[in-house]
Amino acid sequence: MRHLAAMPLALVRASHPLPSLTVTAVATGLAVTSGREAGGLVTVAAAVLAGQLSVGWLNDLVDAPRDARVGRADKPVATGELPRPVVLVGVLISALAALVLSLPSGVLATAAHLAALVSAWAYDLGVKSSALSVLPYAVSFGLLPTFVVLGLPGAPLPPAWLVLAAASLGCAAHFANVLPDLDGDRATGVCGLPHRLGATGSHVAAASLVLAASVLLVLGPPGEVSGAGLVALPAAALIIAAGFVMGRRPGSPAAFRAVMLVALIDVALILTAGVRLD
């Protein structure tokens, strides 16, 4: 009984809750700024959350043997706390729910969300160990605003600057997320693009990508640059520069934290700028 009672919490831990909730919050924020009605907001949030759960659970399911070899005590599938059949059922149910919940947004939006999920599942199932490991992040994150905007009346296409900015942020997230696990990944045979570039190369890639997203978000929308943009762009550049100067010491997290801070600024720009389709 105690094991069964602990299972829901173990499922939450195995779902990568922080990234799942972050992506869901950003998608919901985009739906708000694009003018989706209340019912649409609910279905967008639920569809994206269900899809993220499927991705997170599949990741832990596939990685369980590797996580067990390196002693990842924070991974309930690897430790045996969470039975693999239960996780597999969770993957299938959440994936189906993501597609069903996408349907109110329209066929084209559903197709975009499905393509984003297929890309993310492909990463879990093996692309993460290849030189193309960053590609699913570019595709899936770029398709996130596409899914949201295609759900508007008339199924308009999202502006290119928004798609490119989202893809850049996704790629930056890939390089930044892998950094803490580089050594453990190499020990278990994972050799994606960040592992091939090494810690320094991955830091540079992540920093360049978040700055590129900042430029796109500030200069991409039509019309005059907003006051927030005029402040955000030089601030982002200064934060990245300071992070790398302070991060020269071995083991310093300064560069990583600078990348994460600029990523937060970019997300704020996305949510405050709105989706301008003109």
Description:
There is one protein chain. This protein has 12 helices and no strands. The chain is an all-alpha fold and 278 residues long. Helix 2 runs parallel beside helix 12. It is globular, with a radius of gyration of 19 Å. The mean pLDDT is 87.
Strand segment tally: 0
**Structural class per helix/strand content?**
mainly alpha
The best one-word shape is: globular
Low-confidence runs: none
Count of DSSP helices? 12
The quaternary state of the protein chains shown equals single chain
Largest sheet: none
- Taking all Cα atoms into account, the compactness measure Rg is 19 Å
Distance between the termini: 58 Å
H/E series, N to C?
HHHHHHHHHHHH
Helix content: over 70%
* Percent range for β-strand residues: under 5%
What does the average pLDDT come to? 87
In short, what is this structure?
The protein is an all-alpha fold. 76% of the residues lie in helices and 0% in strands.
Explain the layout of strands and helices:
Layout: H1 2-14, H2 17-33, H3 38-69, H4 76-79, H5 84-102, H6 107-124, H7 135-150, H8 160-178, H9 182-187, H10 193-219, H11 227-246, H12 254-273
List key phrases describing it.
278 residues; single chain; mainly alpha
